[in-house]
């Protein structure tokens, strides 16, 4: 899809803004949502991966800024995951996989994204538990590699892990996930570029709408903002994308 075709697809642009808003509101960059929409609208894998990484970088940076400003970020919850995720994300970004397997892996991540949006991982635990360093390092490496491989930041995996293990509350999880997504996306993109990959020029048409949605989502999400209905709608859209990915 070229620049002019993107600009004449208002539904795509509106949905991208909504995705950016919702994901930024929970500390995510939105790559899984962008990838789902691009798949639905017939973009090629060569366009999807680098574009999703760049959009992810922009929105996660915005989201982190708002959550950090609200003093929700904890360094000790972040660095163990980042230590291993960053180099492994770079490694994953260097690898190009066959389209069929790319879609299967992406669809699997989208299932996690839908579960997260619908709250299927449960509420935050009342009593926080101490972080297990060895386990955190292993989780970071795994998420980082898969993130670089398909072009996401890994927040849709890290967030439920932090909540399920009782290592952080919801706001802390959002702040940590935002920076985690940012550094992984940057690392994955550099890995992609190192192997000769390029960002499609027409992807610039998506940046303005995504930035707008990301700024609004980061602002309202860092406060007390309920987006339950919109998240349900987004989960439905992602569900359609999952079916499309698994059946094509």
Automatic annotation (TrEMBL):
Output the InterPro entries linked to this UniProt entry.
Answer: TM_pro_TauE-like, TSUP/Inactive_protease-like
**Keywords from the UniProt entry:** Cell membrane, Membrane, Transmembrane, Transmembrane helix
Q: In the UniProt record, which is one GO cellular component term? A: plasma membrane
Pfam families cross-referenced by the UniProt entry: TauE
Membrane topology is: Multi-pass membrane protein
Q: Which domain of life is it from?
A: Bacteria
Q: What is its main location?
A: membrane
For this UniProt entry, which segments traverse the membrane?
A: 51-68, 77-95, 101-122, 134-167, 173-193, 205-222, 228-246
Compartments (UniProt record): Cell membrane; Membrane
Extent of the signal sequence? none
What family does the database annotate? Belongs to the 4-toluene sulfonate uptake permease (TSUP) (TC 2.A.102) family.
Q: What is this protein called?
A: Probable membrane transporter protein
Organism the protein comes from: Flavobacterium silvisoli
């Amino acid at each position: 899809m070229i620049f002019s075709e993107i600009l004449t697809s208002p539904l795509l642009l509106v949905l991208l803004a909504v995705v950016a808003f919702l994901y930024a509101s929970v500390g995510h960059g939105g790559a899984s949502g962008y990838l789902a929409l691009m798949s639905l609208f017939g973009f090629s894998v060569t366009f999807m991966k680098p574009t999703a990484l760049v959009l992810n970088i922009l929105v996660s940076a915005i989201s982190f800024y708002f959550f950090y400003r609200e003093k929700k970020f904890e360094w000790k919850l972040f660095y163990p995951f980042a230590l291993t995720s960053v180099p492994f994300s770079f490694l994953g970004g260097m690898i190009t996989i066959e389209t069929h397997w790319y879609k299967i892996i992406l669809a699997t991540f989208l299932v996690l994204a839908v579960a997260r949006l619908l709250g299927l991982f449960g509420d935050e635990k009342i009593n926080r538990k101490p972080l297990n360093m060895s386990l955190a390092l292993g989780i970071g490496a795994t998420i980082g590699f898969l993130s670089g491989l398909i072009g996401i930041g890994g927040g849709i995996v890290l967030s439920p892990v932090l909540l399920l293990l009782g290592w952080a509350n919801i706001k802390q999880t959002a702040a940590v996930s935002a920076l985690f997504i940012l550094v992984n996306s940057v690392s994955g993109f550099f890995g992609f570029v190192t192997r000769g990959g390029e960002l499609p020029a027409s992807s610039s048409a998506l940046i303005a709408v995504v930035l707008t949605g990301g700024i609004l989502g980061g602002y309202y999400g860092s406060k007390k903002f309920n987006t339950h209905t919109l998240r349900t709608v987004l989960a439905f859209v992602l569900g359609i994308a999952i079916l499309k990915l698994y059946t094509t």
